[in-house]
Amino acid sequence: MKVGVLTGGGDCAGINAVIRAVVRQAEEYGAEVVGICRGWSGLMKPNFIPLDYDQVADIISLGGTMLLTSRTNPFKTDGGPQLVMNNVKKAGLDALVAIGGEDTLGVAHKLASLGLKAVGVPKTIDNDLSETDVTFGFDSAVNVAVDAIDRIRTTGMSHERVMVVEVMGRDAGWIATHAGIASGAHVILVPEEEFEIEAVCDTVLARRKAGKNFTLVVAAEGARVKLKHGQVTSNQELDQFGHPKLGGIGHLLATEIEKATHLETRDVVLGHTLRGGSPLAFDRVLSTRLGVAAMDLVMKGRFDRMVALRGNAIVDVGIEDAIKPKVLDSSLLSVGRLFS
Ligand code: F6P
Asked: From atom 14 of ligand 1, which residue's Cα is the shortest distance away?
């Protein structure tokens, strides 16, 4: 049995721990593992490295991905899908473990109809995959955000300012909501609910009137202003999966808040900081369990499936269902808004 492993889309903390676990469990089964570099790109223009236990030793704590990553979509190239399938065959790969989010796993699912035998592992800081309680990388990203926001809070309080913090999450408000609740934000803005800048300013002014000279706003990069704007993007280009580059809502908000309230306002974009660095213990354990389970699924011949966390159990679910966006739990948002 020869198994390929690839990592696609945005990196996050915990990917190397998954790779390590896949390789370790493969050795238990006497299977060979090949690393495919730069996501699907490494199967269009073959780019492989052999992976044995020595190569993955001591990487559980390392951020990023030792296999590198890309946002390559084979379905955007004429003959791309067939090229991938031919290269899988030429390399003698019996199965593939695809570590990725909706885009990477979406490709694996589409290729299943051409005969690809793949198992998915849910990776994204955005936590927006269905059928799993959580994706690995999310918890570490939220903790990085909370650590940064705690620092922003002390300087914001000292200067009696409004501080606007923009966090990643694309079309999902999971990071903003968790980071907002955990850091005691006074306003949490998410893509799932349009908001009015006037309402944010009213909160800031009401707090001021109540003697609170500091306000903390946590805004998801994909948050939308009612009637005026769609999402704020840093440029108009779309990636191969049709996503724009989001960014700028924090700055826009800070400018508008300062204009309307005449209170000093600053914005901070946490951006890629959330994706980098070492995984926390929760993600190291989850990634390790998911990697082991992915290899078990391969050996059972259960393909077009994704390993997932439900409660405290690792289960497997159809990739087709998993790649549907996971809707933000509105009760979480209500909890966050209690504190505004
Ligand atoms: O999907 C993960 C993510 O970090 C999103 O939260 C963000 O919008 C996007 O990737 C950024 O992608 P890139 O690193 O390509 O700019």
From this structure: 10
Total length of the chain: 340
Q: Is 147 a catalytic residue?
A: no
The residues, any chain, with a CB within 8 Å of residue 89's CB and separated by 6 or more, are none
- Label the pairing between strands 233-238 and 215-220: unpaired
Q: pLDDT tens digits for 135-187?
A: 999 999 999 999 999 999 999 999 999 999 999 999 999 999 999 999 999 99
**Six token digits for residue 313:** 């159990």
Which residue's CA is the closest to the ligand 1 atom numbered 1? 10
Ligand 1 in reach of 170 Cβ (< 6 A): yes
Q: pLDDT tens digits for 34-43? A: 999 999 999 9
CA gap 270, 148 in Å, rounded: 8
Predicted local distance difference test score (pLDDT) of residue 340: 74
Task: Return the DSSP state at 118.
Answer: E
Please name the amino acid found at residue 277.
Answer: G
| Ligand 1 pocket check for 305: Cβ under 6 Å | no
User: 3-class SS at 193?
Assistant: coil
